[in-house]
Design brief:
- The chain is of the alpha/beta class and 572 residues long.
- Helix content is 64%, strand content 10%.
- The strands form three sheets. The protein has a six-stranded mixed beta sheet. It has a four-stranded antiparallel beta sheet with strand order 2-1-4-5. Strands 7-8 form a two-stranded antiparallel sheet.
- α6 runs antiparallel to α8 and α18 crosses α19.
- The chain is elongated and about 115 Å long.
- It binds adenosine-5'-diphosphate and magnesium ion (MG).
- Adenosine-5'-diphosphate (ADP) binds next to α10.
């Protein structure tokens, strides 16, 4: 929580005024039983109607003043809490943006989303409640006790015992419920994760008719969460009856002793009523205090989870060199994922000259994406050296790595908006002409102009386009920034062979021509490359041209002939 507190800066005034007005409210409340006492002892005892009216007026004034200070206090508390959480949220967002893929992997997207939403809300709630109650509760509890003692000193024992018992009950219940609440929180995170996955993969789930299984799976988690919640609820349910019982026993004592004292003429009837009122005030206040503590424990837990994100620093440190040509060199490079076992790829050596085409081929999971993801530093190499334009990759700035290296990932991601808007995400200040050129190169111009040109709407996640169309749009988006290095990570898999070939040709004709990495499982996509790297289970089993590899590389031969069987048979 400490680290988060700096986001409270700028709300100091609110943080002082909120509790101050809350304390004021408490003071006004403490006066009410005294006024009631006077009404009974003076007004009713003497049948003094004007006095009673006057005192009732005073009650109304106390209520109005009390309410106004409540409103003021609530206003300040809410302002501080909301302002604080807004600051935390935007800082969190900025921080998450700065993290590299490997940190994002180890935290998990769903967990990050929960931290940015429900955890921040929890902390906001905690701050709000804290500002509102921490000054009020002690005021009322001890204030009521002191006021009661002033009315009748002999009641101190009854009040003291009752408060003690109440505290014991409230805190032991909390000792049980707080850990349960934490459990609920964890379960909630899992349910959210599952729900998110399901919605994300809803098409696949339906296509495979797995709705029922998914539903069962979800229900299992949901039930577990419900169980934990019910358990917490059951224990909390004891709170009210128990505390009320204690307070009422205390009240019986008060009234019994009060009756005797009144009989003996030691105190007035009004005094007994006032004592009763104070006791009732203490009860409600302690229950509020218990809720406050629950809220605060939750908020602290949430704060811890938020701070954990802030404490995760990006492992990637950038330099300030600019990429000029786009020459890439790998020297004995390995990559190991933090959460994976063993190297995902190892022993990668190759050299890509400016404007060359490098093909990378291999089965799924052979490490193709891992290899190319190291070029824009999505992940860093764990061993070996990567050079761009002859300089170590770590000496380049983040901007140049993002700006000069175009990556089209395996999965097409488009955003809701128009075609032009999506293209401008690649680079902001570009003309319509540039977009058109990029669309033409990516072989996307024809279908886009048929559907309404640049202003064609793209639905969320590009659902209104086919897989191959989405891939081409994503390629166009990478092209608009005129990259020096272009990486197509299996991003032409949904194109037919002719379009695929046209696309490669169009990219080769660009000037300046980017160094092109084509990752594919199809031999046809890479066979014309200047250099082909064949990966098998993370190891390079062949580097060379199509011709060379056909002669020397078993894995390449296997892939190639499995896809061009006819040629093989014809060759026989
Ligand atoms: P390809 O692109 O050739 O299908 P990948 O490079 O995606 O293969 O994966 C290579 C290996 O690395 C696989 O065993 C995969 O499970 C693992 N892997 C890929 N991405 C991650 C990740 N983010 N965290 C941990 N392991 C990963
Ligand atoms: Mg891949």
């Amino acid at each position: 929580m400490k680290k988060l507190l700096r986001y409270m800066k700028g709300y100091r005034v609110q943080c002082i005024l909120g509790p101050l007005f809350k304390a004021l409210e408490a003071i006004f409340e403490l006066f009410v039983p005294l006024v009631v006492k006077s009404i009974i002892d003076v007004g009713i005892a003497n049948s003094d109607k004007p006095y009673i009216l006057k005192m009732c007026g005073l009650l109304v004034i106390l209520a109005v003043v009390g309410l106004s200070s409540t409103l003021v206090a609530q206003y300040f508390a809410a302002k501080a809490a909301c302002g604080f959480s807004a600051k935390v949220r935007s800082a969190l967002f900025a921080h998450i943006q700065s993290l590299s893929y490997s940190e994002l992997d180890s935290m998990g997207t769903s967990s990050l989303v929960t931290r940015m939403t429900s955890d921040v809300n929890q902390v906001q709630n905690g701050v709000n409640m804290f500002l509102r109650l921490f000054s009020r509760s002690p005021f009322i509890v001890f204030g009521a006790m002191i006021m009661a003692a002033r009315i009748d000193r002999s009641t101190t024992l009854v009040f003291g015992t009752t408060i003690l018992l109440l505290l014991i009950v409230v805190f032991s219940i909390m000792a049980v419920t707080v850990p349960l609440q934490k459990k609920v929180q964890q379960k909630l995170e899992k349910t959210v994760l599952l729900a998110g996955e399901n919605l994300f993969g809803v098409r696949v789930i339906r296509a495979l008719s797995r709705e029922n299984e998914e539903e069962e799976n979800y229900n299992a988690y949901n039930k577990a969460m419900t169980k934990a919640l019910t358990a917490a609820g059951r224990v909390s349910a004891v709170m009210n009856p128990l505390t009320y019982a204690i307070v009422n026993i205390g009240i019986i004592f008060l009234i019994y002793r009060g009756a005797l004292s009144v009989e003996a003429g030691l105190i007035s009837q009004g005094a007994v009523i006032a004592l009763y009122n104070y006791m009732a005030q203490i009860l409600t206040e302690l229950i509020k205090l218990a809720n406050l503590i629950v809220t605060i424990t939750k908020a602290l837990a949430s704060a811890g989870r938020i701070e954990a994100v802030f404490e995760t620093k990006s492992s990637v440190v950038y330099g300030n060199e600019e990429i000029k040509e786009g020459r890439i060199e790998f020297k004995n490079v390995s990559c190991k994922y933090k959460n994976g076992c063993g190297n995902a790829v190892s022993g990668i050596n190759f050299n890509a000259k400016n404007g060359e085409v490098i093909g990378i081929i291999g089965g799924t999971g052979s490490g193709k994406s891992t290899l190319v993801n190291m070029i824009p530093r999505f992940y860093d190499a764990s061993e070996g050296e990567i050079l761009i334009d002859g300089k170590d990759i770590s000496s380049f700035s983040k901007e140049t790595l993002r700006g000069k290296i175009g990556v089209v990932p395996q999965k097409s991601v488009l955003f809701k908006g128009t075609v032009a808007e999506n293209m401008r995400m690649g680079a902001e200040n570009i003309s319509d002409k540039d977009i058109e050129t990029a669309l033409r190169t990516a072989q996307a111009y024809d279908f886009i102009s048929e559907r309404g040109g640049m202003d064609t709407d793209i639905e969320a996640a590009g659902k209104n386009f086919s897989g191959g169309q989405k891939q081409r749009l994503c390629i166009a988006r990478a092209l608009v920034k005129k990259p020096s290095v272009l990486i197509l990570d299996d991003s032409t898999s949904a194109l037919d062979f002719a379009t695929d070939a046209n696309l490669r040709m169009a990219i080769k004709e660009l000037s300046p021509c980017p160094t092109l990495f084509i990752v594919s499982q199809r031999a046809a996509s890479v066979m014309h490359a200047d250099k082909i790297i064949v990966l098998d289970e993370g190891r390079p089993v062949g580097v060379g041209t199509h011709k060379e590899l056909l002669e020397t590389c078993e894995v390449y031969k296997e892939i190639y002939y499995s896809q061009f069987r006819k040629d093989k048979e014809a060759a026989r």
